[in-house]
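User: Please predict the structure of the protein below. I'd like the answer in structure-token form so I can feed it into my own downstream comparison script.

Assistant: Understood. Taking the following sequence of 698 residues as input:
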Amino acid sequence: MSDVDTKTSASAPTALHEDGSPDRLAIDTIRTLSMDAVQKANSGHPGTPMALAPVGWTVWSKFLRYDPSAPLWPNRDRFVLSVGHASMLLYSLLHLAGVEEVDREGKKTGNPAISLEDIKQFRQLSSRTPGHPEYRHTTGVETTTGPLGQGCGNSVGMAIAERWLAARYNKDGFPLFDHDVYVVCGDGDMMEGVSAEAASLAGHLKLSNLCWMYDSNQISIEGSTSIAFDEDVGKRFEAYGWNVLHVNDANDTAALAEALATFKATDDKPTFIVVHSVIGWGSPKAGSEKAHGEPLGADAIKATKKAYGWPEDQDFLVPDGVIDGFNGEIAGRGQPLRSEWDAMRTRYAAAHPELSAELDLLLNGRLPDGWDAGIPTFPADPKGVASRDSGGKVLNGIARNVPWLIGGSADLAPSTKTLLEGKPSFEADDYSGSNFHFGVREHGMGAIANGMALSYLRAYCATFLVFADYMRAPIRLAAIMELPVTFVFTHDSIGVGEDGPTHQPIEHVATLRAIPGLDTIRPGDAAEVAVAWKMAVESEFRPTALIFSRQALPTLDRSTLASADGLEKGGYVLTGDENPDVILIATGSELSLVLDAHEALTADGVKSRVVSLPSWVRFEQQDRAYRDSVLPPGVKARLAVEQAGSMGWDRYVGLDGDTITMSTFGASAPLAKLQDKYGFTRDNVVKVARELIERNKA
């Protein structure tokens, strides 16, 4: 461990610069804007933005490679505020830096990313300054943060993406990708397990383009962190393989600059800077939980402004010259670099036309022509194949034509079948690899995959469905951010058999379906798997959860049944009568089961219809006429069959329908025994279907 000695005490903040200097004015402007915005909103966290204003100012004005007039420049440095509750720090920086707004298509709107009026509307409905920073909502916000630790995990994915992009596209004389990732994190981030998972992997991968600045202020919502947290975080990060530095006073910008210069000079490991701050410095309430999580109050704000030498009766004051000076420092460094990069891209296109064309597609979120030509077809086969196996074949067929479709699993690739054949692994000695080994770190894996997607890559990650609980936060955030990450979940039901209830997911499909904006797809055979993967890769603004089986599923004969392309509408009529007495609905491994039951009912003269409904999200997007054509409103006898909880199926079976689902956890036994115990047999489906018909007739 190395120290950057500031010869100051964290408990007694010192003056930053001579009063009235441009630097001091900029830092105090960040502080006062933060406290004024929180006070006006009567909601938010003023303490951390105030304490970290010198840190934000130093990174942005002295180090960050960023062009405020081109905030989507691919080779910009990334600034991640993992302590999302300190959002006013970021909003103040974006405002003072003069960052220009771009729309969803990447076109300039002519407006600032954050105006002074936006700051005055902090935490208000439809404002560009929500309580926690939101990606896509506010230009300059690199990722949605708030749930602590997630920004840390995202940053590792961003650093990974830079290394992969550099390995693939950089050529002699063409350093297209050489940017860094800066992160501001706090005690809460360090307590959350996801940051530990991500940091451990970052150290293993020697991501020297990654710098975390840890605000060690020893304050959390409940008070002093000593009530629950007293480890030496620096030593922990040393053990992870990071370069650990200390800055003893957050106000000592010279010491912080020295630490950041050390980071820039380090080429064999990530850097962790422990920055000691006093939360809400300058306030009579400094160090209290109120300074952290509540507005300071009018009297305290006046006292604080007085301590800063600030006009006590002026709110939202931005002194003359602050924006011009701050923007000038950032743009003066960033604009020439961005212009040079644009010129280099032009030369690169001439020197490396194929790679340049590929890069254009990647940066614009498009796919190559014929990208799906390698997707295999699967002939009818009553023995079939597990959907995890067919999923692996489809993934490999696509990845051969989409090189930036990359990912891996949480130490389960042999089981999830997500290994890219013939491709190297992404490791510290080979950043060109396409196979990622996330280790047994599901939570970190999800957050890292999101970070990769935030940096242009089409990321996927995989684990068993029962472990989706370990990574629910990043799945939810992928949906909020509209990131096209593909989450592959295998071992999807009691079909896991002898592994027992700890490994047999019951409620998990329902909880994934409950996430707005997540397309949860549980395909019923190999043909549907191919369509499901195609849908996931084509998705531009929506993550996908693919739910695959461990056990073999019969590959259905599509020459006599409907095409699996019907899955593109979420659900479709697989086969059956135009005016059925009963509708059998299923997903996944139960699709072939209800098809068998349908054939038995048909042989007995019962008019039956089979509906495959793998994606509820897609089905709900269809118009009423289509949905009614699949599930005619007049047919009340509807039976849904799924080896999962019943939650949600009532919307499709109605009050007069029924389900064969799981109402308990599973058990450890061979699959056939479990199917018989829980009613997933042809005879039971036929029996319940007949009962439904009779009940509805009555």
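That's the full token string. Residues 675 and 681 are 6 Å apart (CA to CA).
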